[in-house]
Amino acid sequence: MVEPDDDLRRRLGPPVIPLAPGPARFERIRRQARHRRRWRAAMTTMSTAALVAAAVVVGVAIGGGLPRPQPAQRPIGEGTPGVPVTAPPSATQSPARPTPAGSFVPEHLGLVDLSWVSDLDGWGLGTTPGTCASGFCTSLVRTSDGGASWVGIPAPHADLAEFSCRPGRPCVGHLRFADHWNGYAYGPDLFITTDGGDTWQRQPIDGTVSALEVAGGTAVAIIGSAGSGSCDAGCAVEEAAVGTAAFRPTGLVVHGATTRVVRDGGDRVYVAGIGPVSELYRSDDGGMSDRWNRIVDPCVAFHRSVVDLTGAQGGYLAVLCSASSGSGTDAVVASTDAGDRFGPLRPLPAVLRPISLASPRAGVLVLDVPPSLYVSTDAGRTWSARLAAPAEGKLTGTEFAALGFEDPRYGRVIVARVTVETTRDGGLTWIGHTFS
């Protein structure tokens, strides 16, 4: 088949075959190709950076370019009324602890009690001079850094029992938190918070609360008849789920001039009615099952009476025994099986007249012997002074308060109402924070 351009092709002759470029030409082509690749990569990088910078500028413009202003500090004075108690945060909610409110600490604050839920997080109950005449006396402070710094938070709308319980007004003297959210202010009345202390609600209870402790997800309280200052006629031991006010009788009744509820750092809890012959009981599940084991008063056999008791993990229970006038010295006696059996009596040096007892772990004991704290690391055989109250500002009989331990290493005590001392080695050394 003849194509229209065949004649033209014959006239032009054979096809032209281009000559191959020389080596120098090939090298120049390769250099130009590398240059183009580097140029494209550089342009891509600069374009990306420009886009990021533009996004930042837009974000600053949208956000205003300045930090969000913080609300002004608000003073915490006489205490603030609470709101109705709500259910504690559910297990599906964030476990993050509530942050302190950020208010300043009242001037001339004097503390009477402490409560800690970890090595870092604690609360302090106290009062500020001059507030009682015009309103309620309580003040509340909180720390989230182990006591290095504190902030004021709303306090229960109540008088402070240690100073004044005026007729017709609610009154509290002690503080106990179960966790970062749920806490109790009590004695003789009862207030509950479920938001870390931001709000408090007074609870209508049939009687007065003389002692309260939390263990194993429950709150165990000793509740007597209204207006009674002691449990000589008997006080009921009641329990409620943490974060609720639904206290119910456990069936146990204790008698004594004073009462104590003590936990051992786990689910075990001890209750005591302290008198000439004290009544001691133990629950191994925080009081939930209503099974209470009777513990024989370990001091009676040595012609002494119970003053205080303390528990530590592993079944360690130590009891402080007071000698009658002229009949010997005070002493401690301890059990390593939660009170089923007690070891030998350990008499104290005659110069030591302790007020209270605490234990971070088995065999280590800390005594409040004003004006010093004494520590034994050999189950009461020997003692040494480890912390002394300051010479200035001593208040006879109240140099120390709220002595206790959160775990085998960390413990706290209030000194002369104005200093919170912390130990990180089971009571051997102490570091203080003093309020102005």
- Low-pLDDT residue spans: 42-95
User: What's the count of strands?
Assistant: 30
Order of strands across the main sheet: 1-2-3-4
Structural class: mainly beta
Largest sheet: 4 strands, antiparallel
How far apart lie the N and C ends?
115 Å
Helix proportion range: 10-25%
What is the radius of gyration?
A: 36 Å
Gross morphology is: globular
Strand content: 35-45%
Instruction: Provide a count of the helices.
Output: 2
Mean pLDDT: 80
Describe, in plain words, how this protein is organized in 3D.
- By secondary structure, the protein is mainly beta.
- 11% of the residues lie in helices and 37% in strands.
- The longest helix is centred in the N-terminal third of the chain and has 41 residues, at 23-63.
- The protein is globular and about 50 Å long.
- Mean pLDDT is 80; it is low at 42-95.
Provide a quick synopsis of the model.
This protein is mainly beta and 436 residues long. It has helices spanning 6-12, 23-63, and strands spanning 110-116, 122-127, 138-143, 151-153, 159-160, 171-172, 174-177, 183-186, 190-193, 201-202, 208-215, 218-224, 231-241, 248-256, 258-263, 269-274, 279-283, 293-295, 304-312, 316-323, 331-335, 346-347, 356-361, 364-369, 372-376, 384-388, 400-405, 411-415, 419-423, 431-434.
